[in-house]
Amino acid sequence: MRACKSVMTVALVIGPLTGGTQTFAQSKTWTEQGPGPILNDGNTVLSNMSPVAGAINAIVPSPSSADVIYAGTVNGGVWKTSNATAASPTWIPLTDPSTDPLLADKKLPELSIKSLAMSPVNSNTLFAGTGSTSSLADRGSRGIGVARSTDGGSTWSVLAGTTFKDKIITSVVPTTLNEGNTILAATWPDSGGVYRSTDNGETFTRISGNGASGLPNGGVTSLIADPANPNRFYAGVLAGHFSGVYRSTNGGTVWLKVSTGITGLSTALRILLSIHNDPTNNVVYAAVINEKAGLGGVFRTTNQGLRWTSLGVPNPPIYPRADTEGGQGSIHGAIAADPSNPNVVFISGDAQGSQQNFSPFPPNANGCTTFSGNGFRYTGTAWENVVCSGASGTSPHADSRFMTFDANGNLLQANDGGIARLVNPNTPATRSWVSLVGTNIDSQSPGIKSVEFHSVAYDPVSNVVFGGAQDNGVSYQIPASPASPSGFTWNQLLGGDGGVVGIDADQVSHAGESLRYTSSQMLGGFNRTTWDATNTMIGGFVDVGLNIKMLDATETLFQFEGDRIPFYPPFALNAIDPSRMLIGTAHLYESLDRGDSLTILHSFGTSVVGSGAGRPIVYGGRLNGLPVPDVFYVGAGNRIFHRVTKSGPITELKGYEKIGGGPIVTIAMDPNNYRQVYVSDTNNKVWASSDEGATWADLTATLGKLTSQVTTIEIFSPLFGTPTLYAGGFGVFQLTNPTTAGGQWTAVTGPPPDNNKIPPALVLDLHYDYTKNVLVAGTLGRGAWLFGAPPTTAVASAPGRSSSVLASTTAAKNSRPPVARPAAVHGINLPSMQ
């Protein structure tokens, strides 16, 4: 980890859970922890340690230099590299908060980016369409407008915020019309359609459904300009019977449906468009993605859409079935016309799937052995594979989102693992995929840091952060060392979608060691591993038994619950005795032996604990200086259940129902007084009770002015001193002495003169570690951050390819069976299964 700025003042307090003394830094600052990148991703097959970042939606390459690339991340803002062709590109964030007070309002208040474009009139003018399409149930910013930069991304202004509030802007298309002041934009799935601006994006007018444009009321999933004619544009429209491809020849004011020959439009999830950049050919490609069939067809027109010819579809399919196998064509998939040959087009989907016995184990028809990405090239006469056996044994991360070409003619792809480049895309013998996220090995050059964490933990024994991330598995931080000074490099411990994580750092039962709990989605591969102070795993993975004590038999949790297990089922280690555990699903389970055996304590009926990200369980506390290990609070839906003693009753706290509190997201309990409890709910409210839930006070007060969403809470309560309640949203905020209604919330910042802030990505998890006095924040799109300066720990060896740290965990990970990709259960808002 990077060293923090020196602490100016300290105060002596008593550790609430240990009774020992400790120092609490009152002048803390935020320090970034990465990942940037995560190495050894199980769903990526590259020669250089398979580095990945979080999901990226959009790519804008410089038209004149292959080294300059802008990337719009799903939830982490806009990034830029100026050395994209280097072995390890360096990326800088363009939309993070600035410590310069003159630039405080010149950055983005929320970081969810769906689309990105460069003005054809001025390459320093960039436009970003906001709104989250995260594979984690679309969580993130709901859309704040069009962001515009006129200085290459250094500063930004948010435009048309009222027009595009809560709308996902799928495309922003700046033009040369009206001296570059005419801008088109499109939204979906809100049925907004096409919008048009004539004042460089300051204001937009809705064109779709106005009765004169020819466009129906419907969302637009793709909007592109034709380089052959500055007045010509194409739009892929979803509007029931009126779905199809529409064309405008007068600058986007009047449109005509041009879909003759395209099939599958009535059941389309999306229509993707790409155009060959030679202005003399007028070749346009369309891909129709259907709900159940995946890719329904790829079509080509050579006469501006008057008639389309089917190119068939690649085989094996590029999408698993959406209804049974987790295919996600609503957010994944990309198409790119080759700039050098009007007969060639590239297409990609989500993951290597199992449709029609298409399994990646052992090698499938594409030569792939993991759930990595897929892709095909249409040669002009047939489809050919461009991953694994079709790309020198390489393939990018799964779940593609966008494709384009750089100035050297190489294919760039954005996906849920960052950004990759296909070198020599049209030469089968030499083409191969390389990651562009940066490896950060033997270098101080950080990679792109856009990982979407929903759960994080801090290990005070080895002084590192680890966490569960959307589509990037569970990974852990490698401390800074001479070989990797930045400390941003992480290593993947378990693949798939990383589950909830936990840490047992009890130094009485295992001195000098810590136990880390990790899993993939739906508790897949739930395990504990032992680590020493040098961040080295001792031994391998130990599977958590999860055996339920029944009257006449023993069943595992998976056998008993079946498909009722939530995607991210929460669990909590006991704050007094961390060998004890509570797990919440449709039932509440208690374990006294680290999860190996379980006792069913309660059934919640139709309610489920932890149906989304959050920490709705708190277990073990104190009262009047005495430990109360059996006490817990559990939230299931909008109901709260409470127990004090092991043999005592589990009661529902009806007081919460009386105040109309929403479904529980996170529960926090004062570590020195279990009767003082706090709740955050899905209505973005924060509540407090000082009488074990009998009565509640609304603490939200001014918090709503600081963040549009409240996603998690954490309490710091010294034995002697004033408690502080922390809340996560688009940033981290604090409330001192949070015991009564009202109160003044403030942003958590460093001391003057810098007053540094955490970037306004959505914070989904907060943990305060009392032994090292640090607050760790897990963000959905900007990785992990620490508020405080814990001691650094020397790593056993450099985090290079020969590192014993990487080697031991990678060998252990690779020895485990792969985590299966479960089928989707409902709708387009499911978290990604890959």
Overall description:
This protein has 834 residues and is mainly beta. A six-stranded mixed β-sheet has the order 42-41-46-45-44-43. The longest helix has 11 residues, at 804-814. It has four helices and 61 strands.
Using brief descriptors, characterize the structure shown:
single chain; mainly beta; 5-stranded mixed sheet; 4 helices; disordered C terminus
In which order are the strands of the major sheet placed? 42-41-46-45-44-43
Got a strand count? 61
Distance from first to last alpha carbon = 29 Å
The class by helix and strand makeup works out as mainly beta
Strand content: 35-45%
Mean pLDDT: 88
User: What does the main sheet amount to?
Assistant: 6 strands, mixed
Q: What is the rounded Rg? A: 26 Å
By DSSP (H or I, 4+ residues per run), the number of helices equals 4
State the low-pLDDT regions, or none: 1-25, 793-834
Sum up the overall morphology in one term: globular
Helicity range of the residues?
under 10%
In short:
By secondary structure, the chain is mainly β. It contains 4 helices and 61 strands.
